Amino acid sequence: MREKRMIGFYNFSVVLTYIGLAFSVYGMTQALNDNHKVAFMCLMISGICDMFDGKIARAMDRTEDEKKFGIQIDSLCDLVCFGAFPAIIVYSFGATGVLGNLCIILYVLAAVIRLGFFNVMEEKRQSETSENRKQYQGLPVTSVAILLPLVYLFRDKCTFLPVLEGVVLVIAVLFILNIKVKKPNKSESILMIGCAAIIFLKVLELF
Fold first, then answer.
1. Closest CA to 82 of 119, 130, 120, 43
2. Where are the alpha helices (DSSP H) in the chain?
3. Position 161 pLDDT exceeds 50
4. Mean per-residue pLDDT for 131-155?
5. What is the sign, positive or negative, of the torsion defined by CA atoms of 82, 85, 88, 89?
6. 27-56 pLDDT, tens per residue?
7. Potential cystine with 46: which of 20, 70, 78, 205 (Cβ 3.0-4.6 Å)?
8. Taking a C-beta distance cutoff of 8 angstroms, is the pair 19, 39 a contact?
9. Bridge partners, 37 (sequence order)
């Protein structure tokens, strides 16, 4: 067997995951430069990439190594896209005090715990069944790609930073709370994409 020139896997599903990561890294730079519209746009694009990479992966004929790599790389990228990136967005709005830093730390910690737990349980589930997942334990971290831009739309109608910090804390709790969250079916996914598109246009003030 010919040895690979590069380590890792580069099928369509993981490349889409890498694209989502690239948008998030760029979004971080924009958040730190107070270009919040672009930052939220990048967060939502990363969320859309994450929504489709799993669907593409399940439609592909993958080896066991590719499946295990997909689980790990997806969660590693999710930690950056939906853990570190939202934390930087919150920080860029002025969450620099004790409370702000505590919110950011707890949020990222909850995301890490949620993703680590998901990795263990998903690998176990895939070893036991080939059925698609029907529900999640705890709120998926990707939900922040919709929730934070939605909160951003109301920035002029409230004292925004305390509201943002409070929302981030609530999301952090929901990440690790042992609740059942139904996985969207095809029609629900289409509806979510439509809602995301409206929020996306609202954020950019194009609608």
1. 43
2. 12-32, 36-59, 64-79, 85-92, 98-128, 144-152, 160-176, 186-203
3. yes
4. 88
5. negative
6. 999 999 999 999 999 999 999 998 887 777
7. 20
8. no
9. none
